[in-house]
Amino acid sequence: IRIYNTGIGGSSSEQWGLSAYGLSFQHPFFDWKLRYPYSLFEKRLVNEISKTGLRGILVAHGENDGLLSENKIVESTKMYIQKTRDLLDAPQLTFSIAKSNTGGTAEPIMKVKSAQRRILNEIKNTMVGADLETLTGDKYRWDGIHFNSAGLEQAANRWNESLPLSFFTQTTPYTPK
Known about the structure:
Layout: H1 13-20, H2 38-52, E1 56-59, H3 70-88, E2 94-99, H4 107-122, E3 126-131, H5 149-162, H6 165-169
Helix pairs in contact: 1-3, 2-3, 3-4
């Protein structure tokens, strides 16, 4: 198994969705004209994944989505999932969606949780991923959002535990053409 990391701290679902299509947005360090952050992921898809193949995409978004509306989170996620499937010509490619936020019951966090549930119901070929929302506090997150070393280790364990045998036997992988 090979895992490619294309995560970028400070990015939201909205920025991923808009940048996938080159649509404008404001951000202090992502240049939408260069289609960041999605274009960095796209380069990996084109340069590496198109040669090696891919079983599925593991998605961990939510920590930076608290200021977005629930609908914006869902629609933006649909955008970058569709762009990825179109790019690879892999309409059945599975996206595993983590329970990913900073934990708690505040309104912004509850909105993210609700959006993540909707994504699983509204976007075909998605499945529940790792439960990362309970990895909270200084033990796992150095700034309350981003994982420290212990958090990364626990996140990897959670991903390992979250992927059922059916992920490896019943999903439709992307294979190089």
